[in-house]
TrEMBL record:
The keyword Repeat does not apply. Homodimer. It comes from the Bacteria. Belongs to the RNA methyltransferase RlmH family. This is Ribosomal RNA large subunit methyltransferase H. Pfam families: SPOUT_MTase.
Length: 157
């Protein structure tokens, strides 16, 4: 199985990028992982929120095939503790799924078309985080989930 994280817009913070790169390298030991950044919509300041969400949604959906499982990182999604999340990952790996895609949307969230196509929603917290921070938190939780599955000590350091 491959896990893909799709995000809108790049991260300008070099310290965050270094941490994200560190966890991406760690994940290679457990699973095929792809982190893909979809460029920001050009001239988005001239677009309504709805139109910007629609255009971002179209770009995201262009990256998704029918057989992919699509999970939106959404504030109204299901919340897991780290152990339950690791079990969630294991369940997907056991299902024979080829690609599990998680999506971090743009500043206004997701389009209706993305919600309709999605196979679920996941929330990291009831708190609000910047989209750049969510990237790091999510990739770290993926790594933590795989260390839990392998019974490695990272989870309890």
């Amino acid at each position: 199985m491959q896990i893909t994280l799709l995000t809108i817009g790049k991260t300008d913070n070099t310290q965050l990028n270094k941490l994200i790169e560190d966890y991406k390298k760690r994940l290679v030991h457990y699973i095929k992982f792809e982190f893909e950044i979809i460029p920001d919509i050009k001239n988005s300041k001239n677009l309504s929120e709805a139109l910007q969400k629609q255009k971002e949604g179209e770009q995201i959906l262009a990256k998704v095939s029918k057989s992919d499982r699509l999970i939106l990182l959404d504030e109204n999604g299901k919340q897991f503790d780290s152990i339950t999340f690791s079990n969630y990952l294991q369940k997907h790996m056991n299902s024979g799924l080829k690609n599990l895609i998680f999506v971090i949307g743009g500043p206004y969230g997701f389009s209706d078309a993305l919600y309709q196509r999605s196979d679920g929603k996941l929330s990291l917290s009831k708190m609000t985080f910047s989209h750049q921070m969510v990237r790091l938190f999510f990739i770290e939780q993926l790594y933590r989930g795989f260390t839990i599955l392998r019974n490695e000590p990272y989870h309890h350091r």
